[in-house]
Amino acid sequence: MHSKEDRFLTAEPEATELEDASPMLPEERDALILRHLDGGLDAADAARLREHLLLHPEDAARLVELGDEELLVREGLREASGLRRAVPAARIRPSRPRFAPLLRLLPVAAAAGLLLATAYAFLAAYTRRPGAGPVPDPPRVATLESVTGEADLVRGGRRAPLTPGGALRAGDILATGTDAAVVVRYADGTVATLGGSGALRIDPGAPGKRLHLLRGAVACAAVPQPPGAPLVLATPEARVTVAGTRLTLVSRDGATVLEVTEGLVRLADTALAVEVDVAAGERVVADNRVPPRPLPLADPPAPAPPADAEPLVPVPRPHAPTAPPPLAVPLPALPRTVYEDRFDGGLPPGWLRGRRVEAGLPDGLCGAVRQEHFRNDQGEDHHQIASRSDYEKGLFAVEAGDVIHVTYRCTNPVFFELFLCLRRPDRRYACNLIHRVQPPAPTWTTIDLPLAAFRRTEPVDSLDGLVCFHYFFDSQMIDSGLEVARVWVTRAPR
Amino acid sequence: MGSDALWAQGVIEQNRRWLLAYVYTIVGDAAAAEDLVQDVFAIAYAKRAEFRTGEPFGAWLRGIARNVALRHLERRSRAPILFGTDAAAWQAFDRRAAALEQAHLAPDFERDRLDALRACLETLADKARRLLVGRYREGLSFPALGRRCGLATASVPVVLHRARVSLGECIRKKTAS
Lengths: 494, 177
Fold this sequence. Notes:
The complex is a heterodimer. Chain A is an alpha+beta fold. Chain A has helices spanning 4-10, 26-37, 43-55, 60-81, 89-92, 100-126, and strands at residues 140-148, 151-155, 158-160, 167-169, 173-176, 181-185, 191-194, 199-203, 209-221, 231-234, 238-242, 246-252, 255-262, 264-269, 274-279, 282-286, 295-296, 336-342, 355-357, 368-370, 372-375, 381-386, 396-397, 403-410, 416-423, 429-437, 445-450, 455-456, 467-474, 482-491. In chain A, a hairpin with a 5-residue loop joins β25 (416-423) and β26. Chain B contains nine helices and no strands. Helices cover 75% and strands 0% of the residues of chain B. At the A-B interface, α1, α2, α3, α4 and β27 of A face α1, α2, α3, α4 and α5 of B.
């Protein structure tokens, strides 16, 4: 089966039987091409140019030459006047919301909220059916053995006490801070250790044990599992089936890395539907793009991660003597996250525009931000999500190879644009970067956008060294129903 | 070439300009081409693992760009200037684009051409220069250009085209020398 592209190149030219009834002079050909480039070619002339190119396919090269030259003239003349593609001032420096009227309403809103909450609690208590009793908790699946550092247990969408020795139930999500670790122990002695900046969901076993690594790293020491009831570790990219072994699993930025130190593990790349067996002393990467292939842990030698890279392995666990040993070799150097905004615990401090939402979120996320309407100083309607703005300190320093990732959905998928506002190190304004997403996805999707591919509102020689001090999503007068659950920037290892 | 490191080494900067010309030529809309080139790089980045080391990177990008541009025209119910089945024309088109890609890799290529453009503007007749500046810099309509330059509206596109052709010839001569 030919792809669309193949068809372009393999089909027989249809022009050979045509007659050149009215030959076109080079001047006329160039005039038509220039009008095509100016968007002013009517249907009859477009047909005439197409017919000419069918008869003289070599003249298609002239299209590219004149297209390149036309761009030069456009850009050269615009640069001569400093005129770039017009961007409304409101986009460059979005006006701050006017807080004063809101502040005046704050006490009233707080009182109303308190009243509503009380009424809700009263009604909830007295409208429960007699005899129905409280909804029983799901059964205990595992036990929380220990906690180091900052960690959360999310149960039914709310925080629950995180007590060593406490029960872990199906649906529970464990989330760890940067330098934290939690140890989960099953009744048969199988232990899973979640490292820093991770999230792990305890899923109901059916039969067997099910863990879902939403992000971060988990090290696992599994005792031999009963036949037909394996331990299954899932990540966004892969599913790992364990009969009894020691392994480390890392899920980060679109890739899952599995290292096996004992026993045999089966890994399935869920997008490619490819399964491989990974033996002791082997490592495999699943990224939903390239079929996974086990490689020896020690060969080829993995490049050393940059000195300032975030740790990819779980933090040391002196409190958990049963935990498996640390990774045998350094993991492949993966892009590291240099900036991140999430909305799990509310809008980040200083957030300028957007309304927090909690319904219908992707796995592992407890909050998102939805665009909201505002009218700027020029009376123009916009629908925006706008981050905090910190011109002095900036949000993050930019490198030309940085990639921004956005997890979003649009309930009214028309379009939206993402703007990043950059200044120079000497604090002079540099430019805005703009990327238009059209049409956007109606369901939760993550897009990966290299910053170097963004359109620039002002000429800048290089993005290296510039500072991003603000970003925002805008769909102008159209409410695209844009909800953003996560924004993060990664930097590839050099 | 397909690794993350490639993207950290300015692959977009190196390829943006010629790719913009390529997409612009297919769609005939400079503003849309800028958006589409962003899409091309986003797709290329997402598919970077599929790129095989040793193959021409530009040809790989052109394959993505062509599909993106043609899909754009299809969404707008506009027929492309080059027929999808006209393999010979596409080959000529791509060969010229590959040469353009190589030319743009030269460090001073764009700067030299901009210098040539400025010099050539000075050599044009005053009316021709005013027409070009009014059209390209200020985006004036044909009637407005006619009023400014004392021309009938119907004559404006003709005179403007001659000015544009003269400018192009001058740039080509200067850069060739």
